Amino acid sequence: MSESILSRRSFIQMSGAGAVAMSGLSPGVTDGGAHEKPVNPDPQTHHFSMTIEEAQVTIARDLKAKVWAYNNQVPGPLIHVVEGDTIEAAVVNNTTATHTVHWHGVPMTGTWWMDGAPGINQEAINSGGGEFTYRFVANRPGSLWYHCHVEVPNHVGVRGMWGPLIVDPLEPLPIEKEVTREAILMFTGWNSKVANDYFATEDPTDHLDFYSINGKCFPYNQPIRVKEGDVLRLRLYAATVGVAFHLHGHDMLVTHQDGLPMPAPYWADTVAVAEGQRKDVIIRMNNPGRWPAHDHNEHHLSNGGDTPGGLFTIVEYEGIESDPWYLWAKKEYDPDFYFSESLKQGYGLIEQSGFKADAVPDEAGLAAAETVQVRMMDRGPDGTAKVFDPGFVRISRGQSVEFVPWDFGHDLESVPGLIPEGAAPFSAPKNAGALVRFDKEGLYAYQCIAHRAIGMVGLIAVGHSSHDKAGFAEKIASSPELSEGARLRLMALLEKL
Ligand code: CU
Ligand code: CU
Ligand code: CU
Q1: Residues whose beta carbons lie less than 5 angstroms from ion ligand 1
Q2: Domain containing 469: what range?
């Protein structure tokens, strides 16, 4: 029997895996949460405030992305508690879109309305200062996380709305007590096409082309520094993209999945983590050197086509001399990039200056440059008579629409009752057109005064997620301002929302 197999066996014994297998926690007998739970003798309540901010982060040299950032940082701040503690998080939404916090992995026993799915557990938290306080017992230990649950492909997929929730177990495995270094790695993707457009209409996760660990693509992320003899735990979070995580030069013992101890921990040099999943791996650092650690899905290893990039980092042992050709020879080291220092700071919500986002560049200036044109036409591109083209447009708050008299004889005015409450009516005189800026979120219907009888109408959606489509359809149906033709065309346009 080789030495390495021997040492593996003793490692597993030390890990307590045998004991776990014999104590009735085998799969199929009970689920992970159903065994008798240890009782926290001194449960704490952690009160903290969370905000959601409109901000911009730099993912790689060539990519900045607009995000909605929990406490103005990506990843969101570390939340660290002990099994059985209570979390009371008062959330304020300072953005122009609605959001929630879903606490992924917390069973929410008896508090299902705190689970954060909008329209199912709660109403989404309103934009512009809406508040909601989550209160629940963190009665499931391990590597959990939190993320928004509103329009998930956008908010979670490409807007940075995710962060780690670590719940220390009351009864850690023996191997966990040996851990000397901790690192949290959250794997996510980005879409450079929509990175600067909060309200892009295409599915933002269709074209992921940048990939990051803790919000930075290689080589803009950080090394994981260790010394010989360390017992390193990596908490691998496939937050938005699945990975096949490979560490060179070492075997990893997979000890936990989704926070729960594995019934049979196993060794691997490549660990598959599916989207949403977490796996904890523990590694004896006994092979000094510099070692790549990376996703083995090649598609995730470039920054918009440039390699090396993406989901890649380097494990550096203390005492290995640098070389002039080493690509991180001049790296400025941040010891907390993988939350290693934050995890030692006790409990509660721990913010991190290194992850703070920047202010979004001046929206008004940006919006002015992106005026959308709508042509007033006798015959549309598809042959329809008397149309606004495009009939439906979606714009950001603060953006303008220019109504262009493509053919003459048309004028327009907003339809009373079919614009957001408090928004200013708008109009354009015959043959002149108009430039109109929209500062209030919501749906705006307008029609040609000359051709209202035959239903020459248009629809503008300003802002993002929270449009009340059904309510607007009812208003269209009952509006005394509209002809029957206008009603039909408006309903068709509303379908494009
Ligand atoms: Cu959100
Ligand atoms: Cu989730
Ligand atoms: Cu490799």
Answers
A1: 99, 148, 150, 155, 161
A2: 363-494
